[in-house]
Design goal:
Strand order of the largest sheet: 19-17-16-8-7-6-5-2-1-30
Number of helices: 21
Protein name: Penicillin acylase family protein
Family: Belongs to the peptidase S45 family.
Keywords: Hydrolase, Signal, Zymogen
InterPro entries: Ntn_hydrolases_N, Penicillin_amidase_A-knob, Penicillin_amidase_dom1, Penicillin_amidase_N_B-knob, S45
Largest sheet: 10 strands, mixed
Distance between the termini: 33 Å
Structural class: alpha+beta
Pfam family, one: Penicil_amidase
Helix content: 25-40%
Shape: globular
């Protein structure tokens, strides 16, 4: 860059900073109690400095102004995705897209727009989020968070008012419109209940009483049949669910390997590093499309907050990030943030249930949803003292409402709007102790673990979740026959709803009733490493197993996933080697080692010769594979397709000859069982599949594992969960399209963070799918190409580094 241009940029940035720190107008009068009005942006402004890859560094004088800049900048990159999400939380998808289409799954498990709308419209009509906003802190959100939400909505609206939408996904769409602070809070609520009510949206929307009492549902005046008619009593339902089948369905439903969200994270203490300071590698696995994407920024209020990292779209805070003293990441936890209450219904009245022998009426909530091209749809939802009645947890786990029994869902996170306050506290933290104190004070995380490291050399793992306070003693005393099967298998408790003494208890240090307090959470401090890859807390450090927690948190002494086992092997070896730096974290992220290959490829190749003597090429390719999932790895694609078929048809207990041992959990089970029924067929089917698609068995992985951006094919490394890959990529198989043509979910926002004694953290980041979802944006695929090349962004955290950015662009945004 020419000196004159550089000086001009420096002058612009300096002037912008002066505006923020000295002369920004005061925030407009607080409108945190917004009940539908668009918040005023009078007096709101922020400075946004854009550095390489479109990463905004937002500076403002207070939280309302910081929210304003954040809402503006998110809208600039992701307006269509954000607008789509606001339709969701307002229950208006059917109005614009029709009732039968499917949402993107980012804000609930709903399988249709109608189901989604019935749930979220019900939340809206009940004033649930308004009640949470009115709850005083610490049980409710803080004033700072309310100001952030007010500012975010104003900033988003200001961007809409002053800019033309160019993203073809929503250009000229009438559903792209201004929002309120309440809309922002509703989105936060949806994120909070993802693991609870959000998992049961279809079951809440579809739950209907049997035909025992015709007056159980009231028709809507003027409503028509089918689309427009209120739900009346259903025909008599099926028999009670089978405990064994339900337990297996619950286990599969809550199994980490079946989730579309996951993660790895490791923190190293100063005992393992080159300079005695901590290190953190965060590698969350999240969807690559839709509203659950991350978005990068730095948020600064001079003298109060200075944090860099990633936010979930539509949220106001940095969720995973770092500052000059501490870094943290999250992994999806095994704690089950819901439970069921099995209701004993009053004789002859399926909408009344017994508690301690006395009948209680369910509360009907009639919900009406507008539908594109048709009459409005009205349904009745049924609520109890425990929560909503549900007809199931997904199609695989039905919970039929019969004349004698119904099931109510308890989700304590439906009373939790504190997650963003937890993130704010992390941003202000100066140590891992501050991280732990923030978790104790706010208790806002619904479904994740926290892994952290700090510049003083401390490490921290904690599974601090908002979980229903179901102890093993309570489950033993109060489980129904169904619960006695589901609780050990999955952590899903089914309690006797007819007894008031079977409701979850409360801990004295809990911020809300009915949940575990901070003292009950699994915690591990200052071990050489702490690591989690979505298994339970048990082996956060394999040399210091965590035990003593209740089953609802997760299992102890049970088989670990291959990703956990491979991760522990890697990070424990790193800790033993010592003298670690940020560069070691970067190498671990893209090592692309396939633990399943190390354990099974040689045995598979050897056995292949006897089961497929007529096809020696299959055996040769698997035997020659380098056991990695790099883009140039030959044989990786064949083994991947074989392994998916083998593990999909052969039971886990039959896959290995040497079974699991709790005394050797990282190395067992092992030795591939090549005599298992299904082994030979998996090899045959994998080879036939590739050949039918015109793919050579030894084709390099990157030739057939790729994403397409604006017509450019971008090869990507990584691999599936069952192979044990750290750098997870879960792509969509399309043989006719040439192989894996898109990544559905996997590595998302990666950060490798350390400290060198200066005021600036040593940080490298990467956002695999890039900042913007707009194909016209220069930041639609720039970091995707970095990810494909296994290259990183050097974080510009300190002022001197921001101002030296060769692509520095300064924008002052005002209301």
């Amino acid at each position: 860059m020419h000196l004159r241009t550089r000086l001009k940029h420096l002058a612009l940035a300096g002037a912008a900073l002066a505006v923020v720190t000295a002369s920004l107008p005061g925030a407009a009068a607080a409108d945190s109690g917004d009940r539908g009005r668009h918040p005023s942006d009078r007096g709101l402004s922020a400075v946004i400095r854009y550095t390489e890859y479109g990463i905004p560094h937002i500076v403002a004088k207070d939280y309302a102004n910081l929210g304003f800049g954040t809402g503006w900048a998110q809208a600039a990159d992701q307006v269509c995705v954000l607008a789509d999400g606001f339709l969701t939380v307002n229950g208006e998808r059917s109005r614009y897209f029709g009732p039968g289409a499917a949402p993107d799954g980012s804000l609930s498990s709903a399988t249709t727009n109608l189901s989604s709308d019935l749930y979220f419209r019900g939340v809206k009509d009940a004033g649930t989020v308004e009640d949470l906003l009115g709850t005083p802190a610490p049980a409710g959100p803080s004033r700072d968070l309310k100001e952030l939400m007010r500012g975010w909505a104003a900033g988003y609206n200001a961007w809409l008012r002053k800019n033309r939408v160019t993203d073809p996904a929503c250009a000229n769409a009438d559903w792209v419109r201004p929002v309120t602070a309440l809309d922002v809070a509703r989105r936060g609520f949806a994120v909070s209940v993802l693991g609870g009510q959000g998992r049961a949206v279809d079951g809440i929307a579809a739950a209907r009483p049997p035909a025992s009492r015709p007056s159980a549902a009231r028709p809507a005046a003027g409503s028509g049949a089918t689309a427009g008619k209120a739900d009346g009593p259903s025909a008599p339902g099926p028999e009670a669910p089978d405990p064994a089948r339900t337990a297996e369905a619950a286990r599969e439903l809550f199994a980490p390997e079946n989730a579309t969200m996951g993660s790895n994270a490791v923190a190293f203490s100063g005992a393992t590093t080159a300079n005695g300071r901590g290190l953190l590698l965060g590698n969350p696995h999240y969807p690559w499309q839709g509203g659950r994407r991350f978005w990068q920024s730095q948020q600064t209020i001079p003298g109060e907050l200075n944090v860099s990292g990633a936010s979930l779209l539509g949220t106001t805070v940095v969720s995973i990030g770092f500052n000059d003293k501490v870094a943290w990441s999250h992994t999806v936890a095994t704690g089950v943030p819901l439970n069921l209450h099995q209701l004993t219904l009053a004789p002859g009245d399926p909408t009344s249930y017994l508690v301690d022998g006395r009948p209680e009426r369910m509360t009907p909530r009639e919900v009406t949803v507008a539908v594109k091209g048709g009459a409005p749809v009205t349904r009745t939802q049924w609520w109890t003292r425990y929560g909503p009645v549900v007809g199931g947890l997904g199609a695989q786990l039905p919970l039929p409402w019969t004349a004698t029994t119904a099931y109510a869902l308890n989700d304590p996170n439906a009373a939790n709007l504190r997650g963003s306050d937890t993130a704010l506290g992390f941003g202000e933290a100066r140590s891992t102790q501050d991280i732990a104190d923030t978790l104790r004070r706010t208790q806002g995380l619904p479904w994740v673990n926290t892994i952290a490291a700090d510049s003083a050399g401390h490490s921290l793992f904690t599974q601090s979740q908002v979980l229903p306070r179901i102890t093993d003693e309570l489950a033993a005393r109060c489980s129904t026959p169904l619960g006695r099967a589901t609780y050990p298998a999955s952590g899903v408790a089914v309690l006797d709803g007819s007894r008031s003494d079977c409701a979850p208890g409360s801990d004295p240090d809990a911020v809300q009733p009915g949940v575990f307090g901070p003292a009950r959470m699994p915690v591990l401090r200052d071990t050489p490493y702490v690591e989690n890859s979505n298994d339970s807390a048990w082996l956060a450090n394999a040399d210091r197993p965590l035990t003593g927690y209740e089953r609802i948190f997760g299992t102890v002494a049970t088989p670990r996933s291959l990703r956990t086992r491979g991760g522990i092997e890697d990070v424990s070896a790193m800790a033993d080697r010592g003298r670690l730096t940020v560069a070691d974290l970067q190498r671990q992220q893209f090592a692309n080692r396939a633990p399943a290959g190390d354990m099974a490829a040689a045995d598979a190749a050897k056995a292949c010769a006897s089961v497929l003597p007529e096809d020696p090429e299959v055996c040769r390719v698997i035997g020659a594979w380098d056991r990695t999932v790099n883009t140039d790895s030959r044989g990786a694609l064949l083994f991947d397709r074989f392994w998916r078929k083998f593990t999909g048809t052969v039971k886990p207990a039959d896959q290995w000859k040497v079974p699991f041992s709790a005394t050797d959990p990282v190395r067992t089970p092992h030795t591939l069982n090549t005599e298992a029924p299904g082994f030979a067929q998996a090899l045959v089917d994998a080879a036939a599949e590739l050949r039918a698609a015109g793919i050579a068995l030894d084709a390099p992985l990157g030739a057939h594992q790729f994403v397409v951006r604006n017509g450019e094919r971008i090869p990507v490394s990584g691999g599936t969960e069952s192979l044990g890959i750290w750098n997870k990529a879960e792509p969509v198989w399309n043989a006719a399209g040439g192989g894996y043509v898109e990544v559905a979910h996997g590595t998302s926002h990666v950060q490798a963070v350390g400290w060198d004694g200066s005021r600036c953290p040593v940080a490298r980041t990467l956002l695999s799918y890039s900042q913007s979802s707009n194909p016209a944006s220069p930041h639609y695929s720039d970091q995707t190409r970095l990810y494909a090349g296994e290259r990183w962004v050097t974080s510009r955290f300190c002022e001197k580094d921001i101002l030296r950015s060769p692509g520095l662009r300064v924008v002052v945004v005002r209301g």
